[in-house]
Amino acid sequence: MTDPGENAASDSVRESVAGREPGPASESPASEAAAPDAAASEPSGAAAAESAASEPAGAGVREPAVAATAGVGAGVGGRGSDAGTSGAVVTDGVWSQVRDAVTIRSALLVIATLGLGIGFILSYVGGLHHPAPKNLPFDVVAPAQVQGQAVAGLAGLPGQPLTPRLIADADTARARVADRTSTGALVIDPTSSADTLYVASGAGPSISNALIKIVGAAEAKQQRTVNVVDLVPVSAGDSSGLSSFYLAVGWTVAGYLIASILGVSAGTRPATPTRAVVRLVALALSAVVGGGVGAWLVQDKLGALPGGFWSLAVVGALVVFGAGAVTMALQIAFGVVGIGIAVLMFVILGNPAAGGAYARALMPPFWRAIGAFLPPGAGTDAARSVAYFGGAHNAEPLFVLSCYVVVGLIATIGLAVMVRPKAKAAPKPGSEQGAEPGAVPGTGLASLPEGV
């Protein structure tokens, strides 16, 4: 049997489609369920009919019809429609969140970071994969009758690894090697079949090893042998000769990390020049502590490097402060991108060119040219000079480090005066920014009433 409620709903649908107003019989239980409050407020169905008749045609009476139509649709096949609608809403919500998360700025930062990683590979492998000596300054002591032949033979070696220079006597040659004026010296003895080669492994074992190999092969072609004398050997605790390099790298990393942490925690751009000075003071104190502790560790605690403690500590303080101050200036100028520029300068380019694993004289021209002018390279040269050569030829690396200190100071304070942090925009009235938790945008309500 057919349910009268269903017939009434069907009649209501047909009347709505035909554009006619539904009669009193079209008010079905479904329409009443859609508007319970309205049904409760009316005294009777007759009163509702009188109210409907008094209104203009088509006004206020289509909602029950629509509700009935929706009810019928939901009863027949509404489940699939609801599922499709909810799926579209979920999909739109996910893509909206993806669009909000993946901004142009974040995409560019990811690309730049990937570029730094690729640059790291290129710089380290490109600079260190094939060390080859080129034009190393080299002294020759020989009798007058063989001087020309000896110098010409060494200068004509394949690849031109040496730039030979005649020296008057062996004492002068030894002194030049001992203070790093020359990388090595060959003293030819015409009364013997063995000559003497002076080297200084304290300047970098890679250079002394290369000289031993090159000169040994050249002497063998003349049916002669060579005795090697290391005038400045590395200490027992620094057998690989890398302690100076690692010390300088540690100081450099400490400097730019301290500056980076201060920028990340308190904003890359100080709010006032006074705050920039406060950061520089904090960096200076850290540099003093870092330089002293680093020198104490490698000398007293680990026994890796000889030399004067205070001289080495001063070198460390200059490296830490110079690298940190320049990083601060880069952050003020470029924001978080400045940290990436500091990493490019000090890590990607500076570390392989510092002369650690291989001396710069054995590296390709680009790394050989830039190494001495970056904190890791200048710090390595200064630390080696203090440890093994009594500070000889230390003026250039100390000058480079002092330039970083001065430039970093001036640039940080000057940029802090000129470049101020951007003020945050005030939230618009009725916007979600600054609203209380649970507030309803645009309503002035602290929260929706219970059940709404």
Cα radius of gyration in angstroms: 41 Å
Please state roughly what percent of the residues sit in beta strands, choosing from under 5%, 5-15%, 15-25%, 25-35%, 35-45% or over 45%. 5-15%
Helix content: 55-70%
> What's the order of the H and E elements?
HHHHHHEHEHEEHEHHHHHHH
Strand line-up in the sheet with most strands: 2-1-3-4-5
Structural class: mainly alpha
Helical segment count: 16
Mean pLDDT comes to: 80
Count of DSSP strands = 5
Could you name the ranges where pLDDT drops below 50 across 5 or more consecutive residues?
1-10, 12-81, 430-452
Biggest β-sheet strands, sense, barrel: 5 strands, mixed
**Count of domains:** 3
Q: What shape does the CA trace take?
A: elongated
Ends distance: 41 Å
Would you give an account of this structure?
This protein is 61% helix and 6% strand. α10 crosses α15 (375-388) and α15 packs antiparallel against α16. The radius of gyration is 41 Å and the shape is elongated. It has 452 residues and is mostly helical.
Structure at a glance:
The protein has 452 residues and is mainly alpha-helical.
